[in-house]
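User: structure tokens for High-affinity zinc uptake system membrane protein ZnuB, please.
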Amino acid sequence: MSLIHLEDFIFRAILAAIGISIISGSLGCFVIWKRMSYFSESISHSALLGTSLGFASGLGMHFGLVMVGTIFAIFIVILQRKNFLSNDTILGIFSHIFLSLGIVVLGFIGGTNTDYFSLLFGDILSITNSDIVWVYVILTVLGLLLIIFWQRLLLLTLNEELAVAQGLNRDFYQLLFMLMIALAVSVSVQIVGVLLITSLLIIPPAVARVFSNTPSSMVFQSVIVSMVAVTIGIIASMFYDVATGPAIVITLGVLFLLSQFAYKKLI
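Assistant: Done. Predicted tokens:
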């Protein structure tokens, strides 16, 4: 690889990583506050079906991810309203169904050109200029939604009974947030892969929580932690020739352990 191509490749990877870090760092705080880690894990499993259907239909991976993520979120909200099974049971059932369907579809359409390892664990070599445009389009959409609905989402997160008493539609905002997570997942697959997306959503906020005393400061610090970890992980994956996703998650794990050590020192 020539120096010019290498520099272009690094620039694309870092640019995409920054956008994804802002998305995952901010939404991840709500995942932590709302205790929806299992939902984010479930929707990341469904991403494999979205990816495979996107390839099968010829409409592209991103379209498949958004389509399946949206269907999954709507399906979960409808089933949660029935109250005949607990949320974690519903999520556990359908996340594995969607994951298994994704594996089966990939088995039918897969060939020698299908890189299963990169789908599961990420591949920065696959990032193109159109992928970067997609990342920042989704970042703009999610950023606007967070700005517009920040107070209402925060109120529903911190005091759901008060929010409902004030007339907020709990199901609407629950579905809105799930769709936002689905969009976040759709742009993160190429960096960390299907199996490790949840780590990017929950570990940066967990680190930031140690040093934050307000919701806004936690979001800001979570984004910074995510940026640092993703950048270090990408550089490590290039120089040591390891998968991008695991390199990022290991970096996040180190930062989390350091934050816990710092917390013990602070108290």
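User: Anything notable?

Assistant: The domain at 10-266 is CATH 1.10.3470.10 (ABC transporter involved in vitamin B12 uptake, BtuC).
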